[in-house]
């Protein structure tokens, strides 16, 4: 009796995991359809296009990483690990460049002209 219960329990676990896997696969498929919409890409700014391309590359590499796992291949010993590390570095570098450009102090040209003009100002009539 307990053997039948254990077997039924294993079957139920396998069915639940298969349903969970199917749901995750459908979510990934929906995400891919949304992400590969050509009208979406055209609306992005250059900075967003760079980030989009990095994310898509990282996403595809991650999918390949998962594929290697399902095939029983250790991804840590595969070249995909080096590619993922390279993409992470590139994404970090792009973020640093973007942050530097957005957080960099800008010169207010009008205010600078006023400072210079007031610093160079001389009285026309010294008697006053």
Structure explained in plain terms:
The protein is mainly α. The protein has helices at residues 2-35, 38-42, 46-70, 79-103, 109-119. Monomer and homodimer. Keywords: Cytoplasm, DNA-binding, Nucleus, RNA-binding, rRNA processing.
The major sheet is characterized as: none
Assembly type = single chain
Distance between the termini: 113 Å
Which structural class fits the helix and strand makeup? mainly alpha
Tell me the total number of β-strands. Answer: 0
Compute the average pLDDT.
Answer: 82
Q: What share of the residues lie within helices?
A: over 70%
Function: Plays a role in the recruitment of the exosome to pre-rRNA to mediate the 3'-5' end processing of the 5.8S rRNA.
Keywords: Cytoplasm, DNA-binding, Nucleus, RNA-binding, rRNA processing
Pfam families: Sas10_Utp3 (PF04000)
Family: Belongs to the C1D family.
Features:
128 residues, mainly alpha, cytoplasm, Sas10/Utp3/C1D, nucleus
Secondary structure elements and pairings:
Elements: H1 2-35, H2 38-42, H3 46-70, H4 79-103, H5 109-119
Subcellular location: Cytoplasm; Nucleus, Nucleolus; Nucleus
Organism: Xylocopa violacea
Protein name: Nuclear nucleic acid-binding protein C1D
Concise account of the structure shown:
With 128 residues, the chain is mostly helical.
